[in-house]
């Protein structure tokens, strides 16, 4: 087992939809996808973004792209046209997510 | 099966994208269609504000400038242009485009427009006929904002744009359409697809989704950014489509950037909701059926996309007046930058009271950039950064009162704690908040019309 950052085993992209952001995470390998599918539950992601995401986190699976898509409801202070916050469109939520630390089995890191 | 390929390139990913994109795409290699994607939710709001100030504005003015620079080459090389540049003032955009072409004495350019997306004037009739226009996100009734609505546009589909191409248009300008539609329309026209061939329409929709943000699929905003070469010359994306709906995402040879399974998948995930139900005006695309593979250097193939019949409704994007906002900035250096910023902020809001324009606590805004505002709760908070940017502002119904806040920021450079600077942007002014109201409309109640004329 090794402690690694999500950015060492996946890539991410985020965007906005009204007052929600979406964070898509693509695993580097099919095995890591299965691992992340187990670890990155909506509860884990909600806990990670607790100070940013005021609403519910919904997760979708896209196995053909080795990807998980998270919708972070109520995360943009009112949405792109209303808010004064710097990241009004959740542009950096993807990179933020990649700061998460995970204990990953060694055989998945080879 | 025909081995005809249709090359669709996206030259502008949003209003404000590099003006070099379209100029380079025309020169750097072969393309058949050049699309210009301008209309984000925020963009419509900005255009709405501009039109309110000047009835001749309210469209993507960059587009007209760019057409002026590429029209002759596009005519010579038979490159067609499709743009959702009309914004909230399609007629003004058409007039300006015609003028810029006529000014250069380019003869025989056919310009098509698709009208019918703007339903603001029809709202009383539509509401009377039973359309609810409830807020798609919150479920709220339209009556809550009806008196304050400033625009209402339907996201139209590919058929009318394809019709304009069939009528010989070299340039097609539309108001509101979904971003992927700009790529779906030329493929429907070129391959003669049925509007009920949902797999092909879904594949084209996926292609449009990948292309819609320009270089965001060719290495832009990519996690592993060190792999991306020659950022200044990053290649704008090209979809090389086949008659069966499959396509290759690529860029012109010799350009910078990177087209890999990772860079393209990143863009597939951008602004995505439920991947099995990617709703569009012409079909529902299922992103869980996408087969993606690296076909060669900077060539990513997509095939196997499945689609279904679309919903009986179109999405509508409405804007309404929702008060005003103001935002000013000051840069504050250490020691004790955070503490000093809070001291100033308290004084700013106290001065608003002294002006007789108090800002209630819930309408105040303060963000100290440099204290991990972007990664709040994620990266450890820096307690004593050497420098921060104070972003201070407020929202409210009274523009004049908010403007006073803009006058009470600079005085703290001389009359505040030491180490306050960075006023280059000048005095902040209040601006309108344009509320966004997404809704649905019965497709049968939307009538689009196509007009093609020669300049």
Structure, described:
The complex is a heterodimer of chains A (about 110) and B (about 450). With about 110 residues, chain A is of the alpha+beta class. Chain A has one domain (about 1-110). Helix content of chain A is about 20%, strand content about 35%. Chain A has 3 helices and 6 strands, in the order βββααββαβ. In chain A, a hairpin with a 2-residue loop joins strand 2 (about 10-15) and strand 3 (about 20-25). The radius of gyration of chain A is 14 Å and the shape is elongated. The model of chain A has no long low-confidence stretch (mean pLDDT about 95). Chain B has 2 domains: about 5-115 and about 155-310, no CATH class; about 320-435, Alpha-Beta Plaits (2-Layer Sandwich). In chain B, about 30% of the residues lie in helices and about 25% in strands. Chain B has 12 helices and 19 strands. In chain B, helix 6 packs across helix 7 (about 180-190) and helix 7 (about 180-190) packs across helix 8. Classes of the chains: A alpha+beta (about 110), B alpha+beta (about 450).
Q: What topology emerges from the helices and strands here?
A:
The complex is a heterodimer of chains A (110) and B (455).
Chain A (H helix, E strand, L loop, with lengths): L1 E4 L4 E8 L2 E8 L2 H10 L2 H7 L8 E6 L4 E6 L20 H5 L3 E4 L6
Antiparallel strand pairs in A: 1-6, 2-3, 3-5, 4-5
Chain B lengths: L4 E8 L7 H9 L4 E4 L4 H13 L7 H17 L2 E4 L6 H14 L6 E6 L7 H6 L20 E6 L4 H8 L4 E4 L6 H11 L6 H14 L26 E5 L4 E4 L10 H8 L9 E2 L4 E3 L4 E6 L2 E5 L2 E3 L4 E21 L3 H18 L9 E6 L17 E10 L2 H9 L3 H5 L4 E2 L9 E12 L6 E6 L1
Parallel strand pairs in B: 1-2, 2-3, 3-6, 4-6
Antiparallel strand pairs in B: 1-7, 4-19, 5-14, 7-8, 8-12, 9-10, 10-13, 11-12, 14-16, 14-17, 14-18, 15-16
Helix pairs in contact in B: 3-4, 6-7, 7-8
């Amino acid at each position: 087992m090794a402690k690694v950052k999500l950015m060492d085993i996946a890539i991410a992209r985020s965007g906005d939809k009204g007052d929600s952001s979406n964070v898509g995470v693509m695993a580097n390998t099919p095995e890591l996808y299965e691992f992340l599918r187990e670890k990155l539950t909506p509860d884990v992601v909600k806990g990670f973004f607790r100070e940013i995401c005021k609403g519910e986190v919904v997760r979708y699976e896209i196995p053909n792209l080795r990807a998980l898509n998270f919708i972070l409801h109520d995360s943009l202070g009112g949405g792109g046209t209303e808010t004064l916050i710097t990241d009004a469109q959740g542009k950096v939520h993807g990179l933020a997510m990649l700061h998460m630390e995970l204990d990953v089995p060694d055989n998945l890191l080879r | 099966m025909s081995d005809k390929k249709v090359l669709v390139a996206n030259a502008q990913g949003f209003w404000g994208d590099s003006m070099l994109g379209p100029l380079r795409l025309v020169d750097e290699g072969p393309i058949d269609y050049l699309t210009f994607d301008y209309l984000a939710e925020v963009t419509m709001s900005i255009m709405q504000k501009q039109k309110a100030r000047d009835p001749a504005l309210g469209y993507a003015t960059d587009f007209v400038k760019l057409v002026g620079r590429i029209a002759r080459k596009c005519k010579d090389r038979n490159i067609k242009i499709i743009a959702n540049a009309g914004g909230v003032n399609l007629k003004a955009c058409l007039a300006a485009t015609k003028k810029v072409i006529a000014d250069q004495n380019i003869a025989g350019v056919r310009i098509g427009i698709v009208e019918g997306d703007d339903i603001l004037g029809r709202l009383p009739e539509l509401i009377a006929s039973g359309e609810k226009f409830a807020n798609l996100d919150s479920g709220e009734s339209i009556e809550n904002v009806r008196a304050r609505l400033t625009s209402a546009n339907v996201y139209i589909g590919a058929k009318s744009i394809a019709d304009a191409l069939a009528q010989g248009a070299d340039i097609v300008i539309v108001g509101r359409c979904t971003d992927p539609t700009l790529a779906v329309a030329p493929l429907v026209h070129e391959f003669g697809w049925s509007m009920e061939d949902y797999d092909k329409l879904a594949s084209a929709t996926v292609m449009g989704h990948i292309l819609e943000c320009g270089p965001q699929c060719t290495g832009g905003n990519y996690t592993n950014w060190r792999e991306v070469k020659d950022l200044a010359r990053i290649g704008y994306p090209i979809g090389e489509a086949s008659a069966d709906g499959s396509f290759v995402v690529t860029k012109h040879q010799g350009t910078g950037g990177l087209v890999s399974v990772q860079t393209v998948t990143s863009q597939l995930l951008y602004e995505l909701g439920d991947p099995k139900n990617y709703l569009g005006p012409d079909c529902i695309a299922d992103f869980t059926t996408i087969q993606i593979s690296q076909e060669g250097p900077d060539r990513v193939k997509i095939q196997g996309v499945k689609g279904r019949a679309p919903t009986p409704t179109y999405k509508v994007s409405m804007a309404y007046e929702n008060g005003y906002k103001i935002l000013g900035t000051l840069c504050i250096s250490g020691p004790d930058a955070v503490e000093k910023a809070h001291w100033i902020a308290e004084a700013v809001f106290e001065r608003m009271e002294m002006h007789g324009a108090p800002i209630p606590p819930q309408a105040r805004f303060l963000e100290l950039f440099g204290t991990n505002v972007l990664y709040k709760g994620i990266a450890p908070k820096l307690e004593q950064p050497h420098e921060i940017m104070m972003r201070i502002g407020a929202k409210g119904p009274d523009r004049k009162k908010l403007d006073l806040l803009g006058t009470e920021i600079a005085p703290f450079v001389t009359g505040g704690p030491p180490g306050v600077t960075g006023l280059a942007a000048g005095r902040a002014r209040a601006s309108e908040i344009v509320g966004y109201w997404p809704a649905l409309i019965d497709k049968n109640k939307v009538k689009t019309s196509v007009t093609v004329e020669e300049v």
